[in-house]
Amino acid sequence: MSEKKKKPYVKMIFMGIISAGMYAALLLNQDFLNNYFGRGGAYAFLPIAAAFAFSFIHGSFTGDFWTVLGVEAAKKKREVR
Amino acid sequence: MHETVNAVANFINLDTANIIYLFLVGFVGGLVSGFIGSGGAFVLTPAMMSMGVPGLVAVASNMCHKFPKALIGSLKRAKYGQVDVKLGIVLGISAEAGVLYGAHIQEGIKKSFGEAGSNLYVSVAFVVVLAIVGIFVLLDAWKTYRSGNTNAEEKVTKLAKWVQSINIPGTMVHFKSLNARISVLFTIPLGFATGMLAATIAVGGFVGVPSMIYVLGAPSLMASATELVIAFVMGLGGSLKYAMHGLVDIRLAMIILAGSLFGIQLGAIGTTYVKPYMIKMVMGTIMVIVLFSRALMVPVYLSQLHLIQEIGEGTTKLLKNVSFGIMIFALVLGAFIVLKAMWQGRKAERLQHAGEALGHGKV
Prior knowledge:
The complex is a heterodimer. By secondary structure, chain A is mostly helical. In chain A, about 65% of the residues lie in helices and about 0% in strands. Chain A has one domain. Chain A is built from three helices and no strands. By secondary structure, chain B is mainly alpha-helical. Chain B has one domain (about 5-350). Helix content of chain B is about 80%, strand content about 0%. Chain B has helices spanning about 5-10, 15-35, 40-50, 55-80, 85-145, 160-165, 185-200, 205-215, 220-245, 250-270, 275-305, 315-360; strands spanning about 170-175, 180-185. In chain B, α2 packs parallel to α10 (about 250-270), α5 (about 85-145) crosses α11 and α11 runs antiparallel to α12. The longest helix of chain B has about 60 residues, at about 85-145. Chains A and B meet through α1, α2 and α3 of A and α1, α4, α9, α10 and α12 of B.
């Protein structure tokens, strides 16, 4: 158990900044977003694409966030069955 | 819901308090979802509606946060070897059909019996399904706990053994979570029921997870992880449908997602520390508490439909608030059990490592 993995500080900070930027853009442009993202029809791809983009960027950040805090999965692999 | 609605008129103004509220509910909902594969939606939709969001926009925005959340959760749990992607996709596709049919029934009921009729249908579905499935799941978990044999291998039920023994040529598929070949003629109705429940009460997993465990014979950890794949498939299709009608409020969906992605990562990590029966324990507990919450609302809708004596406005408001409070309690209690189990698991692991290190004379 002596091997210590390097914690992903740099990646977490990088993704955290992008994620914060995306959320800032979301909250600062609410009128614009409501206008285009709620148009329906072919514009439906906008909220779906945004959801994927946020999930990957913010999901990567939150994953690294817990790793950096030391909250990680159990070391011993649990037998599923 | 057939015409594109005037979006801006349907989207509320967001203040800081609302943003923090949605973030927190998203976090707790995500934590529970990461652990049991679903949950949270039953609180999020009414929570948004209490902020003044129209019902359909609340349902649509909830759906649009659900699929990216489920995606991240299933990727995380796949790392732990808990996801059966094939089973998830097979069930997910039939669940999608169930969602469409469930939504169709909802529309029909709304047309014939109005808003109160539709609410009554949703509440009765909640109460009946949660009473049967929730009590069964909770009793099963309780039995395992009482037996003191919580480390024992999960037993495949007689029903699942029978399902696995049936051979219908041309329909058999091997699933790794079951370690068996089963006929898709069994998975289709289960997926369909999951989807119908998702369209009705927003949480398909309350049928999806128990049916994978008890009818198909999947281990609890794999069933709850695979449910995330089903939720992704269902949520993506549902979101696309709602987005085409201009009903998704992307701000609401992404703010909830901000909280729920913190939660789902934590919930997924939690599953690596607990014994499998804890999945059933958390799920059963939440289901039984939510059952009471919805049962409280049944008299209100019956009164609105003039099927019983009219209930006063004050009483209606009180029942509504108590019902919502119980739902929040169910979710917070679920999150508490997850965090406690995780904390205990981590502590046990640390002690074990310390013991091992001592045994090897390293300290």
